[in-house]
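=== Structure Prediction Worksheet ===
Name of assembly: unnamed complex
Input type: mixed (protein and possibly other molecules)
Chain count: two
Listed entries:
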Amino acid sequence: MTIADVARRASVSRQTVSNVLNSPGLVREETRERVRQAVEELGYRVNQAARRMRTGRSRLLAVRIEQTQDGMNVFDRFLHGLTRSAAKAGYRVILYTADDDRSEIATFDDLLGAYEPDAFVLTSTHYGDVRTSWLAERELAFVTFGRPWGSPEGDAHPWVDVDGAAGTAAATRHLLDAGHRRIGFIGWPEGSGVGDDRRNGWTRALEDAGPTTHPKLEDASLMRRANLQDAGGLERRTDGSAAEGEAAARELIAAGATALVCVSDSVALGALQAGPVPVIGFDDTPVAAAIGLTSLSQPLSDAAARCVRVLTRLLDDDSPDKPDHVLLEPSLVIRRTA
Amino acid sequence: MTIADVARRASVSRQTVSNVLNSPGLVREETRERVRQAVEELGYRVNQAARRMRTGRSRLLAVRIEQTQDGMNVFDRFLHGLTRSAAKAGYRVILYTADDDRSEIATFDDLLGAYEPDAFVLTSTHYGDVRTSWLAERELAFVTFGRPWGSPEGDAHPWVDVDGAAGTAAATRHLLDAGHRRIGFIGWPEGSGVGDDRRNGWTRALEDAGPTTHPKLEDASLMRRANLQDAGGLERRTDGSAAEGEAAARELIAAGATALVCVSDSVALGALQAGPVPVIGFDDTPVAAAIGLTSLSQPLSDAAARCVRVLTRLLDDDSPDKPDHVLLEPSLVIRRTA
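=== Predicted Assembly ===
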């Protein structure tokens, strides 16, 4: 089925059919109607190029494909969910790679020139992220999977994220419930939005805990402060590798920690080598399942579906006055290690 | 920069500019030249929709994103490599999901109608694969990452693959070199192209081995047959899960196996639970690195780059008389378990 078939059926030239598809304003109403009827009768599937020129829509969502050093990440689950949810909404996912923000912005420019994606899905948001303001200045549709950590625009753009603090708080409570009172935390360097958020859940759960290391202190606020002070000595920052995770765990165990909450499964994998104390990771990677590591699982299919929903609302101009912000809860998957 | 700017500069109507881009045959040579000059002077970047209507090229390669049960796969590495190599060649990757061959073919149809990808990259080829003949009948460009196992078209289409048999042969030789003479194999059900290929490397290495379990047999062919007969009792098929891998390993160890070659890291993960015998996996997943599993690593970035090169040759009509067939070698990554 081609434009020529439609032209024959409508008794017009191919150029007229093309005009109806691309510049309908140039064609008389009566002719336009005849062509549209022929299109319908023949079940002609307007091709994407013609449709795009008419509607200005590419039906493409662009997303970066990430790769981490040790492969212990769950980005592929998010990407699978995004592809599936996008297809249900009539969109396809187009991929790109980028090594840093600057090269990613150059790629935005290139994609916009060549493929005109309707929207972008940004991942790995971080302090000093220059990608969002670049897109916002150009009034391009996008959603971030990740909150706008310290961004000057604040909450001006739509985002979907998983509540890391709620996750580590649940992990810490799980260890408190098991009777642990000196619970350490192994994190990433300060200044990582995601890392600091996960750390905050640990401190929050310790502050909120009932009588712990100081049963004689009756004043609740004193008790909370004492809990936290104790905890302060039980924290280590790492580069995120298993090797540094193991070293940090040795120090914390020597300092009296009887259980460890970790910022990632990679760090937790290392911590497990340090000694027989309970360890909880974060991200529920295939490695966690393989070695029986208790870990926090992000609802990635749901997060991906919410990203698509946020974007389709934006693109269909059905968006509310305020941008959508969606914060989802992770769940603790309890296995052998805690 | 819009078509209107070009039209102004060339002193023609917008429709004429559109005609030059989409149907240059309709426009007089002199006018066409004037528009082209304006496009060049203004640095107007012809948008993709217009370019596609002119060239019939979408600059999109379509690939399915896969998801496995336990997440122990390395497809994300292939996809990352494909995205990077495609971008270097001026193409982008567009994703889709599909649950089986039939739904994948329905998706081909949908993609062709709506996005017109220039080519497809098919993964997970298997016996009775109906996808390749569907594409071949329509003369659509594609490459498979995986050989056309038992396909009636045989080697009629281009493919890139990794030599699984060479991998398991190397693993088996590694164990023979370490002094093992009763080496078991844990595989997938018969009829899996990939699984049977990996199995064949194990039998080949045993056949090719020098004096092994029957040092008194001096005739080399008798010796080879004896080796193989011994090996016959040391083989188990599984569904690919760690649980069945463990059960199979227990049986093989009871039958006298002193070392195990496994069809996948998942199966090897289970086999490690069965007892302290050397185990070698396949695919070098993040789990293998995490637990110190010796495993076979596929050159996935290279395989992805070769897929892109095969397709660009096809699309640029620079292809040889015979379709490209590329078979790459995996490499043995030696860790703690063997």
